Amino acid sequence: MNAQDLLPADTMMGTVMLKVGNLDRMANYYRNALGLVDVAESDGGLYLGRAGERLIHLAPAAGLKLPAPTEAGLFHTALLFGDRADLAATVASAAQVAQSAEGRYVGSADHLVSEAFYFSDPEGNGIELYFDKPRDTWDWTVSEGRRTVVMDNAPLPPQQYLESNLTEESVTNQQKSAADVGHVHLQVGDVATAEKFYVGTLGFERTAGWHGQALFVSAGGYHHHMAMNVWNSRGAGPRKDTLGLGEVLIQVPHSDEVGALAERLEGAGIKHHHTGRELRFEDPWRNKLRVAVR
Predict the structure, then answer these.
(1) What is the DSSP string of 269-286?
(2) How far is CA 111 from CA 35, 79, 114, 211, 270, in A?
(3) CATH of residue 117
(4) What is the tens place of the pLDDT at every residue in 107-128?
């Protein structure tokens, strides 16, 4: 792929929109478990975030059903924290809420590039809470001309992590501390089609794979801005209109990059709506994507 066909190095993920069946219950979960605060209301929906940044958009969709676990859609939304203390504060609050059966704790892992804890919300949407280790500690390998970041699933004991990193200050200032959508992980029908779309057309670079079952992609040498797997959804076709993932926002710095992507989508025969500063389209499984100027 030519450099001009790549997303810019300072591409970032933006707000993830979720279609929800019970807005009040879901909003309370994201407030109480993840320490998010109300940022804005729009069309009956609610934007929640940190430090003024819109991270999650809850859009009411009471008439829709929950998706089956084997369908394409959201695997998890990953919220990135600036230091271990801020991460620990949110892991602690999410774990406490999970004890009341609102949401669920799923697990934890040291991925070598990051430290991550996994939860699911009351409607089954996956959540990752994580902290990035310094970039100069990430290992990269080159094989057959392809650069791959080294990641793993090493043990990360939650209680020990909280004892080492949780501080009174991080708990007190939880809602004031910043967080970002670091990456978004999807369930798809097959990895080859995902790579053709997300790398070959959209313009991410492949950073890692996992036994033909998962793909990790990024811009600018990040470990991954998006990922796709078939662990639950191998062979899944286009999505139905269900609760769960509504839209993923990808943010680029300039309108030129939006225009260049519109040309790539046009060349690939992918339907899209281009306003100049914003581009809307779907991936092969009808996951809705929006690329906009930050």
Answers:
(1) T--EEE-SSEEEEE-TT-
(2) 24, 15, 5, 16, 34
(3) 3.10.180.10
(4) 999 999 999 999 999 999 999 9
